[in-house]
Amino acid sequence: MRDDVKAVQVVWLTRTGLTNLNSGEGGSNLVDIKKYRFAGQEYPYVSGQAMRFYLKEALRRHLPPDQACVADDQGETCGRIGECVLCDLFGFMTTLPDVGAVTRVSPVKVSPAMGLVPLDGSLTLDFLTRRHRGALEQGEMTGDIVNVELAVNVYKGGLCLDVERVGREEERYVLGETGGRRPKAYYSLRFREHIDGQERACRIGLLLDALQDFSDYSKQARLLTDFAPDVLLVALQHNYSHRLQKALEVDGAANVNVARLAQVLEEVTPDCLTIDGRPAIWAGLLDGAIGNAEAVSAALHQAGVPVSTPRRAIEAAKAALGV
Ligand SMILES: [Zn+2]
Q1: What is the whole-number distance in angstroms between the Cα of residue 1 and the centre of ligand 1?
Q2: Are 164 and 191 in contact (CB under 8 A)?
Q3: Cα-to-centroid distance, 78 and ligand 1 (Å)
């Protein structure tokens, strides 16, 4: 794996069918959709916590049980950075015997997935009945009716991986001592390695794979949804930043703001590695996912960004990174 990459950054759009990916507080007979309000309109969103859960479950499918723990009754996980891929990548807050409370900041940062089409005009209410057997024959409508909000939308999601912190932990150490009559120690931070380079590469590869096929969303028994990226940008950066997250601005008709895209690509290029004389950014574009795909492709080509499908773009980034 290359050792000059500080961040792997991904931003994507995905168009869903009729679904409810993340429920709000709801009521006794209502399963609502989590919503945010902007400029007087309501939009759906999927929380960052839910996105992290989906990614974890996708990783779990490819890991043996001892490398992917689950939380105990107190909601605490194992905290074994060396052995547990999920605790390493997603961090934890846990209490360890003889050590006390231990927290690890997740090297994987995800954004909430924000719906970009107003719910007014895209929301419907489906109802699900839990009818008791035989009730119909008696001509009675007994049983419970639960209303489920469903909507079609285009979501924007994002992920940034702090590559240096995968499999490593920051620890404070004594840098030296001041002079004088009463010397005082001064400190700095350094990384403690928990795993070797090959295992680090393997974990990063697994995370990027999970992004292509994460699928353990709630309510899938009735709402089979593909929420994986349709339009995607992935970058290898030698400087840690989140700037690429602003590249895909979409209006209510699912047209990407092309001027903004070109500007953000220009802004992130100095943070990116240079590979074959162009910035280490790859794009994937599924036909029909956005309104102005041709203009978007042209802007990407102009910026030296090769355009293929989302999976090929991630494969190219993985190959360049060496994972
Ligand atoms: Zn664990």
Answers
A1: 24
A2: yes
A3: 4
Q: pLDDT tens digit string along 115-157?
A: 999 999 888 998 877 666 655 555 555 667 888 999 999 999 9
Q: At what angle do helices 197-213 and 48-60 cross, to 10 degrees?
A: 110
Nearest to 15 by CA among 217, 153, 178, 149: 153
The Å distance, Cα 66 to ligand 1 centre, comes to: 8
Rg of the chain's alpha carbons, rounded to an integer?
23
Residues 6+ apart with CB under 8 A from 129: 143, 144, 145, 146
Residue 224 belongs to some domain of the structure: yes
CB 125 within 8 A of CB 115: no
Tens digit of each residue's pLDDT (9 = 90 or more) over 44-79: 999 999 999 999 999 999 999 999 999 999 989 999
H helix intervals, 45-151: 48-60, 85-90
Total domain count, the chain: 1
pLDDT, position 138: 57
Q: Is residue 227 part of a domain?
A: yes
Domain that holds residue 190: 7-321
Q: What is the DSSP string of 218-272?
A: TTHHHH----S-SEEEEEEESS---GGGGS--B-TT--B-HHHHHHHHHHHGGGB
Domain presence at residue 2: no
pTM assigned to the model: 0.91
Bridge partners, residue 174, by sequence: 187
Domain assignment of residue 133, yes or no? yes
Q: What's the 157 CA to ligand 1 centre distance in angstroms? A: 25
Residues in CB range of 64: below 8 A, 6 or more apart: none
Cα of 87 vs centre of ligand 1, distance in Å, is 4
